[in-house]
Amino acid sequence: MTKRSLLWLGVLAMLSLPMANAKSYSIAFAGPTMVGNARLAAGEYSLKVEGSNAVFTKVDNNKSVTAPVKIESSDKKYGVTMVETVQQGATAHVTDIQLGGSTTKLDFN
Question: What pTM was estimated for this model as a whole?
Fold first, then answer.
């Protein structure tokens, strides 16, 4: 291989690192839940943060829903992932999610 092709290979490898490091979190909803303007059915979801969006992927069918989110940082690391909701009728509305093992809080208000 030439030096130029090795350089391109290195650049491509470095660009793929952020995607490889994207951490996902497991979240379950007992009933219908609103996240921003997105409606989620009851079930288990994988949550990933992509830029200023939260992507919820249903575990059993791999369908994804994206919701805009405000990302905040805390001074302390959260021990577990915790979802805070308010109940409006039969539907829960997510207000924020604290991501366990990180200092990140996702604000959906």
Answer: 0.77
